[in-house]
């Protein structure tokens, strides 16, 4: 990424000019004003996530993975709403002394993400942190013409589906914490989540409800059920798992809980009326993204996991909750919902 000012930053405004002004779009006014100027061309979808060192990422995680994650988790929220990314605001707390190498990696990752997803920095704030790195991103997107996909639209007999595969990121976190040894690709899945932006946009007008899987499949589907006033029955045997995750679970059976509760997958779980299923599967083929049918919406409340014979699977856990114990995957999860 080009730097606007050469040399090591010596103060806040030098830091902004060198590292963040090159990321700004026209809305940011070159980051030389006290505010941004946004021109909206429709309804806006706004989301916010806060990342704190040693809570959402490790102190020795690569700086580029932190920058990638900071934008990815926000864009994943926009994806779940079917929104098209527009711009974002960045709040950054930096410990002293400022580490220019860390900032290079962090902002280079932001720049790369911006290029991939056509989003730009519109403003924010920087401050000195008395302790850890603290990163706050507020992302703004345009709602789809068909209307934002809400959590509250699931109805009885809708089909429950997920994109991609589950559990890899949580297993990567377990490897990262030293709980088990496994394929390094799982750690990469934890460090570098991929938001399903194109999928979300394609689901607008087709999906009745959706959420991104940040806190764990059962927790995030549970949010959909609670908002919609329904229940869900999920077939444990239909949950998709990648080869690296399956190999680890085969020799570490307790890792299977990562599929249910682990979080950090940032796949989409969504519900589809039966009449829309063919259109949804055509979307899967067009985007070359696998969609998996994993269950159905029923009367009642909560999420029930069953085996192939329809018997309830005994599980203990609830997904990630910032203010409660009982977490399976430890430091994962960054959703606010």
Automatic annotation (TrEMBL):
Residues involved in ATP binding: 124-125, 151, 214
GO molecular function, one term: ATP binding
EC category: transferase
Residue span(s) of domain PurM-like N-terminal: 33-142
Binding of substrate, residues: 56, 264, 320
Pfam families membership: AIRS, AIRS_C
Function, as annotated: Catalyzes the ATP-dependent phosphorylation of thiamine-monophosphate (TMP) to form thiamine-pyrophosphate (TPP), the active form of vitamin B1.
Protein name: Thiamine-monophosphate kinase
Top-rank taxon, per record: Bacteria
Limits of the PurM-like C-terminal domain: 155-306
Binding residues for Mg(2+) 2: 49, 77
Family, per entry: Belongs to the thiamine-monophosphate kinase family.
Taxonomic classification: Bacteria, Pseudomonadati, Pseudomonadota, Alphaproteobacteria, Kordiimonadales
Gene Ontology process terms (BP): thiamine biosynthetic process; thiamine diphosphate biosynthetic process
Additional remarks: Reaction mechanism of ThiL seems to utilize a direct, inline transfer of the gamma-phosphate of ATP to TMP rather than a phosphorylated enzyme intermediate.
Organism: Eilatimonas milleporae
